[in-house]
Design a protein that fits this description.
This protein is α+β, with helices and mostly antiparallel strands. The protein has one domain. Helix content is about 40%, strand content about 20%. The protein has a three-stranded antiparallel β-sheet.
């Protein structure tokens, strides 16, 4: 099964692990999912922050 990675240094999608792990996000099942890596990470981070604030009882 082919895996795709998003390279945060070059801003390119790589098929298979070609670069150093410190520059990669993934693996992702498709090239399109890897291309959306930063958007996905941002959305997840915002959701986690909201859940954390709600759990602590902070005003959101």
């Amino acid at each position: 099964m082919t895996e795709f990675y998003y390279n945060t240094r070059t801003h390119q999608v790589e098929e298979g692990r070609q670069s150093h792990w410190q520059s990669l996000m993934g693996p992702y099942p498709t090239r399109e999912a890897a291309a959306r890596a930063l958007e996905t990470a941002k959305a997840r981070s915002e959701a986690f922050d909201h859940d954390d604030s709600s759990w602590k009882g902070d005003q959101a």
